[in-house]
Amino acid sequence: MNFKLLTASALAIVLGASVTVADSHADKAIMEAIKARQGQMQLYSHNLGVLGAMAKGDVAYDSAAAKAAADNLAVVSGLNAMTMWPQGSDSSSVEGTRAKAEIWSNFPDVGAKAGALNAAAVAMAGAAGTDLDALRAAMGPLGGACSACHKAYRSR
Amino acid sequence: MNFKLLTASALAIVLGASVTVADSHADKAIMEAIKARQGQMQLYSHNLGVLGAMAKGDVAYDSAAAKAAADNLAVVSGLNAMTMWPQGSDSSSVEGTRAKAEIWSNFPDVGAKAGALNAAAVAMAGAAGTDLDALRAAMGPLGGACSACHKAYRSR
User: Fold this and answer.
1) Which of B39, B67, B97, B127 fits as disulfide partner to B134, beta carbons 3.0 to 4.6 Å?
2) Residue B124 belongs to a domain with what CATH number?
3) Which of 91-150 (A) contact B at CB < 8 A?
4) B65 to A82: CB separation less than 8 angstroms, yes or no
């Protein structure tokens, strides 16, 4: 084992951690807003995971569970997100986010993409409880709405 | 600066990180469910923060912003949380959560406390847009519903 290398990496981690703490102290409200929107994304991811596992056949189709996950997506995508995207919370201003600065110069397009996600989630909520075919048919537009926004506004 | 001490701490961080990664590989689905419910908590915290700042007078009362935050709380507290609390996701089974094992042996009470939170959030949604006095009056029951569950089921 190369202890010299390990020590160097470990030091880099310690120094990196200090930088992050300093940044978060710089604007607590901004870091907190970022955490909130990332919380929203976790709820998307979790409920999409439930539907995706059924769509792929990894988990048996369960009408009630599918409907519950889809209803969750419909309401979470309908949240008022105004306070979660403050100016200065982009990836070029702070660490801990992949949100591109372009979001704040393209609000009409961002709003349209958010509306498209909500529409696709509402359509899924209407389909998921019917049967597996209906669930699968609604997955494409829903996944497409997620990635449309990620491609345009999330850095890699 | 004591480099010997710093190196020891740094190594501890590296080793600690490895342990956490190993744990999360042990059951990815459980760690993901924990992240999702913590996401829900972040959304509570964020929107409560908006209302709390107005209640305390740190931020000027804004009827539309107050109503938006309260509506968010009402829908987020109404999510179907079934898949976010799998068996084995308590603080004695995995790291990264403060959820006590008692949750899984007291589901009727946990459900009642979750219902009380949703009722308090719906009441806030009906009050927050009216005026600052109505918002303030709804804060007590809402904060009380949060802490009732935390006191019983979240480790310190």
Assistant:
1) B127
2) 1.20.120.10
3) none
4) yes
How far is residue B150's CA from residue B156's CA, in Å, rounded to a whole number?
A: 9
Domain of B56 in residue numbering reads as 2-153
Tally of structural domains, chain A: 1
Least Cα distance to B22 among B118, B121, B94, B128 occurs for B94
Assess A31–B contact: CB distance below 8 Å, yes or no.
no
Is the pLDDT at B89 greater than 80? The verdict is: yes
B111-139 burial, b for 16+ CB within 10 Å, e for fewer? eebbebbbebbbbbbebbbeebeebbebb
- Render the burial of A7-44: b for 16+ CB within 10 Å, e for the rest: beebeeeeeeeeeeeeebeebeebbbbbbbbbbbbbbb
Distance CA A10, CA A22 (A): 19
Angle at B43 between CA A124 and CA B146, to 5 degrees: 120
Instruction: Write down the ipTM of this complex.
Output: 0.82
End-to-end CA distance of chain A: 32
What tens digit of pLDDT does each residue of A27-42 get? Answer: 899 999 999 999 999 9
Closest B-chain CA to A45:
B36
Does position B31 have pLDDT exceeding 70, yes or no? Answer: yes
Q: What is the pLDDT of residues B59-77, one digit of tens each?
A: 999 999 999 999 999 999 9
User: CA of A76, closest CA in chain B: separation in Å?
Assistant: 7
